[in-house]
Design brief:
Helix content: 25-40%
Structural class: alpha/beta
Radius of gyration: 16 Å
CATH topology: TIM Barrel
Oligomer: single chain
Order of helices and strands: EHEHEHEHEHEEHEEEH
Number of helices: 7
Strand order of the largest sheet: 1-2-3-4-5-6-7-8
Shape: globular
Strand content: 15-25%
Distance between the termini: 15 Å
């Protein structure tokens, strides 16, 4: 089974189009105001209008209140929610959308316990522990710490680049990979060439190269 690809932190229409043209499966829109890749609702709407069919839109939140999430959902065609903070299960459920929960891979963490605390999650995104930025910092965690859990899909994130994603996929065999800074020329500005190189790297990993 091929590894799916999500390109997160999209801030421009042309980058959304580059993601689609390269054959990625999903884009991520960040609705966390402290992020350098934060998008406003109007900006998100414009990006979504530029996407072709069958490219999923993932909305990322960090410890947001329910009103903020509902406001985005009322205005933006979101397919999937991603909660990237310390949200309890109750804060992630009840929006009429499936969700994935990010798990920060702390040195002394217990990812399986966190997964059990989110029984309704569609999958889990494993990311490096970055308490100040909550991801997007280009930090790699030890892939040997990826649990052998496969009851629900695991998505690998954290410091992935066109140069290391082949090894990451071959070693961990995730359901999907998620990249943001690893395909950027500046904060929130993606490179179409780097996106294409990243996807080629994923394909090589799938092939065991």
């Amino acid at each position: 089974m091929r590894t799916r690809v999500k390109i997160c932190g999209i801030t421009r229409q042309e980058d959304g189009q580059a993601v689609a043209n390269a054959g990625a499966d999903a884009i991520g829109l960040v609705f966390y105001e402290k992020s350098s890749r934060h998008v406003e609702i109007r900006q998100a709407q414009e990006i979504c209008r530029s996407l072709p069919p069958l490219v999923s839109v993932v909305a990322l939140f960090v410890n947001a209140d329910r009103d903020q999430v509902s406001k985005v959902l009322a205005a933006v065609p979101v397919d999937l929610l991603q909660f990237h903070g310390t949200e309890a299960a109750a804060a992630c459920e009840g929006f009429g959308r499936p969700y994935i929960k990010a798990i920060a891979m702390k040195p002394d963490g217990h990812p399986l316990e966190e997964m059990k605390a989110h029984p309704a999650a569609s999958g889990f995104l494993l990311d490096a522990w970055q308490p100040d930025t909550h991801g997007g910092g280009g930090v790699v965690f030890d892939w040997n710490e990826v649990p052998a859990y496969r009851e629900r899909p695991l998505i690998l994130a954290g410091g992935l680049t066109p140069d290391n994603v082949t090894q990451a996929v071959a070693q961990t065999r995730p359901f999907a990979v998620d990249v943001s800074s690893g395909v950027e020329i500046d904060k929130g500005i993606k490179s179409a060439e780097m996106i294409e190189a990243f996807i080629r790297g994923v394909q090589r990993g799938d092939a065991g190269q």
